[in-house]
Write a structure and sequence with these properties.
The structure holds two protein chains of two kinds. By secondary structure, chain A is an alpha/beta fold. Chain A has eleven helices and ten strands. Classes of the chains: A alpha/beta, B alpha/beta.
Chain lengths: ~325, ~350
């Protein structure tokens, strides 16, 4: 990879204030509570690549996605697209231009499409907002083209979202991402609301479109098998930090962090029916009160003294005192 | 670190606490008689614009200690099948045909009062969302005691002891302190353990588990699967496990029924159905699931989507999406026939092929 990365996320953290109201706090003499959703997360995504973030609920993967797309501002750290920071320096013509190249596909296609708009209106919105084509006829032609690209019929343009199934709605969401000529698409659990046969259709479509338009994906999912199928590189998140980061093939073949290993063990797989019972222990702790040191140490079979005191840095793709 | 309680805690419950059921028929001594038997079940929903058939001629048996997986996509009728067995089909839905037998006795014709004695007592239920199946206003101890006393003639003290033993058995750490806690004080996985304890209160013969792990993270899901498997093994409870996740079925079930549009497309031993599925829908379904073990550049794609109940195609319901469909499939509905160690409903097999 000699090209500079399209996206560079450098040391990004995001805290949420979850304290009780001021008066309650004063009366009960309670301190402010901060939820550390994401802590010191860094990664690069190269052009045409699929980078996946995988983790259980509460690991902070969606918060990272929302910071990259600009829906949340990081508490600290930078998000750079093509070398330009979107997070500091405020809004300029340059950041506006960069933002147009980013689009997001959300998890729930039932909530992400305006139920009162016709499909053509939904798909044409980014075209109009960014003044990509000027005449009405050109917009209509573009909408028809996009519908066909995602495997819908051009006649579907005058229908409403409720007339479509979940898979078809997700196709509309993808068409909308393509409408803005986005190069970088953030997909937050794009198939977790769908049935498996429909999931396969959407994953295949996403791959075809990536090949065709040289798209770059940031793919967020809790489903390891889907991540393995889609991603070139994978970051595994646990309690707001990336604990392991590396090429998908290596990470799935030889996981190095004990958490990755545990996750892979926990996934029921149809290729191994009736696998013997495994020892999986514990649950993800609360991000308001994370364990000191390595957040995984209470569940880790390899934990020793140092793990309870020191947060292991991400070195050479793995954040673990025991893995080196 | 959380570990399951030692086997000693388990033993106390497998031999019931000073309680022996007088009215329960003796458990079948041989494994030959199925504990639950469903024959030609038909569930209809009478709506203003016509009658929708959600379940159409479903038959299967469930043996003691067996886990039967029921898999299918949304709208296949898996949850309705489970609801029909426990008599929880609300109007306008109704059981329009067929019979359901529990240990040889028909339960689909029972009155609501009689049914209440079967439900929870001899058939336990575990639902998808543990937060909605627990009452947020009562402690889990109170909910367990109430359920136990509704089904078993035990004193408050005995019921409380039993509740505690159940919590220990399902792996709630520090159960004695947690018994007075409210549902919101538990994590999702722990709540689902409480729901499982509730389902096991009266030592049912059959447990219907409807998507018990769908709302949980994978690591917690693995723990719940292990728990369900252990309970089946140790107590001989039969489980009907309804899920859309083929992976969960592969790990847990002994046999699997693949449902499509209200009918069983294929039913047989898990390994056979997963490794060499016969029905074109099962073939497509297995190929559509990304695997951690195999690398595929593309997933198998089944064109289209499950038909709506109001527009189920004639003949084989799968024929519009099937790449091997021929004339007969559009005209005639295929019956379930024995083929290669399992049953399959497809015209490609049997005498016609």
């Amino acid at each position: 990879m000699t090209q500079p990365p399209v996206v560079r996320v450098a040391g990004v953290s995001r805290y949420f204030d979850v304290s009780k109201p001021w008066l309650t706090r004063v009366i009960a003499r309670e301190a402010r509570l901060r939820l550390r959703a994401v802590q010191d997360v860094s990664f690069d995504i190269a052009r045409g690549e699929t980078f996946a973030l995988v983790g259980e609920s509460g690991s902070g993967k969606t918060t990272v996605a929302r910071m990259v797309v600009g829906l949340l501002t990081p508490t600290s750290g930078h998000v750079r697209i093509d070398g330009t920071s979107l997070t500091d320096g405020g809004r300029t013509a340059e950041t506006d231009r960069l933002r147009r190249r980013i689009h997001m596909i959300f998890q729930d296609p039932y909530a992400s499409l305006n139920p009162r708009w016709r499909i053509e209106h939904i798909i044409a919105e980014p075209i109009r907002a960014f003044d990509l084509v000027d005449s009405k006829a050109a917009i209509a032609a573009r909408v028809a083209e996009l519908l066909e690209l995602v495997g819908l019929h051009p006649a579907d343009r005058s229908r409403y979202p409720h007339e479509f199934s979940g898979g078809q709605r997700q196709r509309v969401a993808i068409a909308r991402a393509l409408a803005s000529n986005a190069e970088f698409v953030i997909c937050d659990e794009p198939t977790s609301a769908l049935d498996v046969s429909v999931q396969a259709q959407i994953l295949n479509l996403m791959r075809d479109l990536q090949d065709r338009f040289d798209l770059t994906y940031l793919f967020i999912s809790h489903n390891l098998a889907v991540v393995r199928h889609m991603a070139n590189r994978v970051g595994v998140m646990y309690l707001g930090r990336i604990v392991e980061l590396g090429p998908g093939r290596e990470l799935f073949r030889a996981p190095r962090h004990p958490y990755t290993r545990m996750l892979l063990d926990a996934v029921p797989d149809i290729a191994a029916p009736g696998r013997s019972d495994r020892e999986i222990a514990g649950e993800i702790p609360s991000p308001i009160d994370p364990p000191p040191g390595c957040a995984f140490h209470p569940r880790c079979p390899l934990a020793f003294d140092r793990c309870r005191r020191e947060v292991p840095p991400l070195i050479d793709g793995v954040a673990c005192h025991a893995a080196r | 670190m959380l570990t399951f309680p030692p086997a000693t805690g388990v033993r106390t419950l497998t031999h019931p606490l000073a309680y022996d059921s007088p009215d329960r028929p003796a458990r079948p001594s041989g494994s030959a008689a199925p504990i639950l038997s469903v024959r030609d079940l038909r569930v209809e929903f009478a709506l203003r614009r016509g009658v929708l058939t959600a379940i159409d001629g479903v038959s299967f048996d469930l043996a003691k200690g067996e886990v039967l997986g029921v898999v299918g996509e949304s709208g296949a009728g898996k949850s309705v099948t489970g609801a029909a067995i426990v008599g929880l089909i609300d109007p306008p839905g109704r059981i329009a045909g067929g019979e359901i037998r529990l240990a040889g006795e028909r339960i689909d014709t029972l009155s609501e009062d009689e049914l209440r004695r079967v439900r929870g007592r001899r058939i336990g239920m575990i639902f998808q969302d543990p937060l909605t199946s627990l009452n947020p206003l009562f402690t889990i101890g109170d909910q367990l005691v109430e359920t136990i006393q509704a089904h078993l003639p035990l004193s408050g003290q005995q019921a409380r002891e039993r509740a505690l033993a159940l919590l220990v058995e399902v792996g709630i750490p520090a159960a004695a302190e947690r018994i007075g806690a409210y549902p919101h004080e538990f994590s999702g996985g722990m709540r689902q353990r409480v729901v499982i304890a509730l389902a096991l209160c009266a030592e049912p013969d059959v447990v219907i588990a409807d998507e018990p792990t769908t709302a949980l993270d994978v690591s917690v899901q693995a723990q719940i699967i292990a728990l369900i498997k252990r309970l089946c093994r140790e107590r001989g409870t039969a489980v009907m496990l309804v899920t859309h996740d083929m992976g969960v079925i592969a790990e847990t079930a002994d046999r699997v029924a693949v449902m499509y549009a209200g009918r069983i497309a294929e039913i047989g031993p898990v390994a056979a159905v997963i490794n060499e599925p016969l029905h074109p829908y099962s073939v497509g379904l297995m190929g559509a699931i990304p695997s951690l073990e195999h690398e595929a550049s593309r997933l198998t794609q089944i064109p289209g989507a499950m038909p709506r109940l109001s527009a189920i195609p004639r003949g084989c319901a799968f024929h519009p999406r099937c790449d091997r469909a021929f004339d007969r499939c559009t005209a005639e509905r295929p019956p379930l026939i024995a083929e290669n160690g399992r049953q399959v409903a497809c015209h490609l097999y049997g005498d016609a092929s």
